[in-house]
């Protein structure tokens, strides 16, 4: 596991590809919101008609009598026979590598994942598991990812490296990136040529993300951001090329608390999420 503590004090020029995204407009949770509002509408209509609402059997109570209501859960998605076979073909060599070749004790002893191990992980495509195939990733669903994780978790250091890279480090680009940004960043992240990190925690801020002190200040000419602050416990912090850094910007409206997420890379991109 490669973690690092580092102090940020940099300024970044806006490139012509600078972008701003309103998290509320593109938030994937919006779909969940609209489905829950139609659910509320349906419930209200049933109440008005005097009809008895449908009831489910108690989910947790049923677990104790061996009944498992899979309809209650989003996962696992059902894979087709072909998908299962294809997944097994991908998992098999990875499992062999993790159980027969990998020296996890040496990784712990040396606090370092050897370069040849990194190379093998890249060849398996493990840095691109959740990245769509069009960008060179494996395009895994949550079920496929979970199956592969049964193997990659055999070495916790490797799992944290892969997890920080894709579950958090590059997730902002996947969820909120423009097509142009995805095309620019995702292919190299999928192959592992670029490693991603997610920089949120600070010495005075852990679970309470809103209390971060790192701030990004726009210069008077509006061309440059000055990023100042300190981050720690950043998985992949010492090896990442792409970092998603959480920083606060100046609050312009009293009702809005603004956190800016910056992608640090050769060209600087910025996403704003208004909270
Ligand atoms: C292996 C590892 C990898 C990590 N990688 C990263 C990384 O890549 N990037 C990154 O930014 N950070 C990373 N972290 C840091 C991690 O995100 C923080 O440790 C985490 O956010 C918790 O913060 P904290 O340790 O300051 O604990 P605190 O926030 O100080 O919490 C201390 C305790 O209080 C409890 N607590 C906190 N708030 C409440 C509340 N409101 N109500 C009840 N209980 C509460 C917590 O559950 C916890 O038990 C990593 C940590 C580990 C262990």
Descriptive notes:
- With 275 residues, the chain is of the alpha+beta class.
- The protein has ten helices and seven strands.
- The protein has helices at 23-26, 29-49, 59-63, 81-101, 104-110, 115-123, 142-152, 156-169, 171-176, 179-191, and strands spanning 3-13, 196-199, 215-218, 224-235, 242-248, 258-264, 269-274.
- The protein has a four-stranded mixed beta sheet with strand order 2-5-6-7, with helices on one face. It has a three-stranded antiparallel beta sheet with strand order 1-4-3, with helices on one face.
- Helix 4 (81-101) packs parallel to helix 7.
- The protein is globular and about 65 Å long.
- The chain starts with a strand and ends with a strand.
- Residues 9-37 and 266-275 have low confidence and may be disordered.
- Residues 160, 164, 198-201, 206-207, 233-235 line the site of flavin-adenine dinucleotide.
What is the fold's blueprint, element by element?
Blueprint: E1 3-13, H1 23-26, H2 29-49, H3 59-63, H4 81-101, H5 104-110, H6 115-123, H7 142-152, H8 156-169, H9 171-176, H10 179-191, E2 196-199, E3 215-218, E4 224-235, E5 242-248, E6 258-264, E7 269-274
Parallel strand pairs: 2-5
Antiparallel strand pairs: 1-4, 3-4, 5-6, 6-7
Helix pairs in contact: 4-7
The protein binds flavin-adenine dinucleotide.
The site of flavin-adenine dinucleotide (FAD) has 11 residues, from helix 8, strand 2 and strand 4.
């Amino acid at each position: 596991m490669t973690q690092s503590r580092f102090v940020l004090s940099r300024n970044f020029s806006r490139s012509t590809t600078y972008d701003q995204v309103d998290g509320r407009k593109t938030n994937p949770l919006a779909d969940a919101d609209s489905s829950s509002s139609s659910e509320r509408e349906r419930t209200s209509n049933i109440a008005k008609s005097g009809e008895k609402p449908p009831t489910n059997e108690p989910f947790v109570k049923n677990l104790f009598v061996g009944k498992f209501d899979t309809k209650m859960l989003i996962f696992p998605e059902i894979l087709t026979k072909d998908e299962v076979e294809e997944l097994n073909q991908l998992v098999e060599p990875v499992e062999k590598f993790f159980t027969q070749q990998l020296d996890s004790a040496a990784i712990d002893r040396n606090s370092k994942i050897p370069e040849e191990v990194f190379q093998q992980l890249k060849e398996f495509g493990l840095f691109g598991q959740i990245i769509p195939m069009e960008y060179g990733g494996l395009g895994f669903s949550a079920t496929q990812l979970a199956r592969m994780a049964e193997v990659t978790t055999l070495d916790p250091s490797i799992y944290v490296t892969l997890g920080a890279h894709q579950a958090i480090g590059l997730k902002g680009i996947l969820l909120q990136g423009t097509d142009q940004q995805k095309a620019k960043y995702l292919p190299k992240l999928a192959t592992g040529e670029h490693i991603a990190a997610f920089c949120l925690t600070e010495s005075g801020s852990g679970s309470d993300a809103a209390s971060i002190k790192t701030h990004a200040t726009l210069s008077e000419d509006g061309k440059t951001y000055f990023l100042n602050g300190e981050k720690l416990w950043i998985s992949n912090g010492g090896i990442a090329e792409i970092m998603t850094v959480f920083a606060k910007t100046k609050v312009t409206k009293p009702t809005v608390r603004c956190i800016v997420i910056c992608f640090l890379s050769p060209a600087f991109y910025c996403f704003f999420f208004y909270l």
